[in-house]
Amino acid sequence: MSHEITLRTAHPAVEQLVSEWLHVSRIALPRPVTLDIDVGPLPPLPSGSKFNFRQGNVAVSSAGPGMPLAIEWGPGMGRCVLDTSSTTAKVIMEERALERPNEMLRLFLMLVCTFLLRRVGFHHIHGAVLLSPQNKGLLLVGVSGSGKSTTTALLARRGWQVGTDDIAFMCAGEQPGTTDIVPWRERLALHADSASAIGHHGGADLEARQKIGWFVEDLGTTWVQRVRPELIVLPTASADAPTSVRPLRAQQSLARIMPSSPWVSLEAEYADEHLDLLTRLVKQSRSFEATVGRDLFDRPDILPELLA
Amino acid sequence: MNTTYSRHPELRLTAVDGEGVVLHLGSLTYFTVNETGLTILDALLKPRTLGELVTAVTDEYDVSDAEATTTVRDFIGRCVESKLLITEDR
């Protein structure tokens, strides 16, 4: 039996925005978790909290092992204090936070969900997830601008199923000793030049991200809910060089993936499980670094041919 | 006086294909280690002296005591500098 993220809020605008976002995500969890959101004055930070990590305007801090984690959207927009073993994230936001829905959802609440989902064995990784027509799972890992979304959109048009081009969670695989990836469903987001080169028209204007978005179904393929990767590709987009791939050793792959799964370093209580999932992932997969060239627009099959 | 070395409690180690990746939770940093480094860190599950670590390496690899001592001393020095290990003088 799977569970969704339960939203608890008395604020109608929060209810509308967040429930739609969660509904679209289609995330299926092994145990229930709750996002409890109030709008009002922010509570104080737990005493002794020390800054650990920052992502945009959101800072994560903790007073140490076993102590609650504080996730703060600054300055003074929202705050979540999450106990180590709690599966309910208590979030308080200022009213003005609702004027910035993209930042509220994709940055602040996404980070809250990232730590909330850790409590049920789901560990975030920044990557794209696909399934080939031959049922081979592919994980594309890299920073923004590395070519993940463009490659995903191109392969989608060649019959690959797509889970996500950006946000995913590792969890214990259905096969013992393996890692599966569960995607967080949202629109694939492409820059206008990539969308144009691929030949896509229409799409939703993702103004805050300066991109154009399509659900995978709009690209003529289907969404995949869970993938066991057999291939890991770390792409780098190139305007000049042709598409090429180079194999990586498992250790190299693991070290290169870790920056895309940085929360492994936080919360000692969950670090071992997180690191174990990353280790299984590189052990079960063949890894490559790839240069993704402009030639991929004309011949998307080059990449799977090179990875074969 | 004899110095012993042990893993920092915030160190996490994982092995893949005979090589390792070390994560330090406190400093949010990670390092790759080769096969010999992995052998040394495996031996450091409990406090060890330099001599005991040299023995762990010579038991595993066909190297002289002098070579092993240089390797262990360099590796331990870098680990202590990166706060991956704790030292204790007895």
What keyword list fits this structure?
heterodimer, A: 308 residues, alpha+beta, Rossmann fold, 7-stranded mixed sheet, 8 helices, B: 90 residues, Outer Surface Protein A, domain 3, 3 helices, 6 strands, globular
Walk me through the structure:
- The complex is a heterodimer of chains A (308) and B (90).
- Chain A has helices at 12-25, 101-118, 148-156, 192-198, 250-257, 268-284, 295-298, 302-307, and strands at 5-9, 33-39, 50-55, 58-62, 69-73, 78-82, 88-93, 123-131, 137-141, 161-164, 167-172, 179-183, 188-190, 204-206, 211-214, 229-237, 244-248, 286-292.
- Chain A has 308 residues and is of the alpha+beta class.
- Chain A folds into 2 domains: 5-118, no CATH class; 123-307, Rossmann fold (3-Layer(aba) Sandwich).
- In chain A, strands 8, 9, 10, 11, 12, 16, 17 and 18 form an 8-stranded mixed beta sheet that branches. A 7-stranded mixed beta sheet of chain A has the order 1-2-7-6-5-4-3, covered by helices on one side. A 3-stranded antiparallel beta sheet of chain A has the order 13-15-14.
- In chain A, β14 and β15 (211-214) form a beta hairpin.
- The longest helix of chain A has 18 residues, at 101-118.
- The radius of gyration of chain A is 19 Å and the shape is globular.
- The two termini of chain A are 36 Å apart.
- The relative contact order of chain A is 0.13.
- Chain B has 3 helices and 6 strands, in the order ββββαβααβ.
- The mean pLDDT of chain B is 93.
- Chain B has helices spanning 35-43, 50-60, 65-81, and strands at 3-7, 11-16, 19-24, 29-33, 48-49, 85-89.
- Chain B has a single domain, classed as Outer Surface Protein A, domain 3.
- In chain B, α1 crosses α2.
- Chain B has a 3-stranded antiparallel beta sheet with strand order 5-1-6.
- By secondary structure, chain B is an alpha+beta fold.
- Chain A binds chain B through residues 52-53, 249-252, 254-255, 258, 262, 264-266, 268, 271-272, 275-276, 278-279, 282-283, and chain B through 10, 12, 14-17, 19-21, 23-25, 28-30, 32.
